[in-house]
Amino acid sequence: MSGVNLTAWILNPLLGLMIFLFIFRIVLTWYPQVNLNQLPFNLVAWPTEPFLIPLRKLIPPIGGVDITPIIWVGIFSLLREILLGQQGLLTLLT
User: Fold this and answer.
1) How many domains does the chain have?
2) CA 18 from chain center: how many Å?
3) Whether the Cβ atoms of residue 52 and residue 72 lie closer than 8 Å to each other
4) Is 68 exposed, middle or buried (0-12, 13-18, 19+ CB in 10 A)?
5) 3-state secondary structure of 52
6) How far, in Å, are 42, 67, 68 from residue 85 at the CA level?
7) Alpha carbon distance 73, 75 (integer Å)
8) What is the pTM of this model?
9) Which of these, 86, 87, 84, 85, lies nearest to 5 by C-alpha position?
10) What is the Cα–Cα distance from 62 to 71, expressed in whole angstroms?
């Protein structure tokens, strides 16, 4: 297995998992009474919070709605498509 294949093999599930976690985080924002420090919700909150904190400083909530998880879903989806999509950089190198 070449280095490019190994990188794609690791990145694809990792980026997919991050997209899933951010989508789940978006759903959790609909339920403000949920404590994100308790299981199983902390399994979603802890990996995503380091990404959300710096972006929240740049983009404040709009009308009380935190849109930063939506932005990260877009960023990770775009990154996955650019690297691993049908015409992605890593796909073309293999």
Assistant:
1) 1
2) 4
3) yes
4) buried
5) helix
6) 31, 26, 24
7) 6
8) 0.88
9) 84
10) 13
